[in-house]
């Protein structure tokens, strides 16, 4: 998304060249908002690049170093990602999806459903993982507290 933000802020994807621009141009065949400056998308992607990107790096550190705040960061990042996805697509759905190419099988099922579904499935699974781990910690604390009394 960093390349998209850069291209959107200095011009637009449609008029840009290079490998990253060509990738966004291809995705723009499924969702035309990515070809030109869409303020909603750019605003969401600015948060994704800077906030979520920083949180992701911090999360990797927390996982590797087994920090106690790992699940707090993981939950925060997952919620940010799910909210960002919602804010990317809900305005489009509310206006009848005029920029989404739903008539082409590849663009609809692969680009829009599958690729964007990964950004729902992965945070959903990580939220579940955090829930399970926090639940285990709670149960251990509860059992330990009962044994001490």
From TrEMBL:
Organism domain of life: Eukaryota
UniProt domain EXPERA: residue ranges: 1-127
Protein's GO biological process: sterol metabolic process
Membrane topology: Multi-pass membrane protein
Keywords assigned: Membrane, Transmembrane, Transmembrane helix
Family the entry assigns: Belongs to the EBP family.
InterPro entries in alphabetical order: EBP, EXPERA
Main location: membrane
TM segment ranges: 41-64, 71-89, 109-128
Keyword Electron transport attached: no
Gene Ontology CC annotations of this record: endoplasmic reticulum; membrane
The name this protein goes by in its record: EBP like
Naturally occurring in which organism (per UniProt): Loxodonta africana
Cell location: Membrane
GO MF terms held by the record: cholestenol delta-isomerase activity
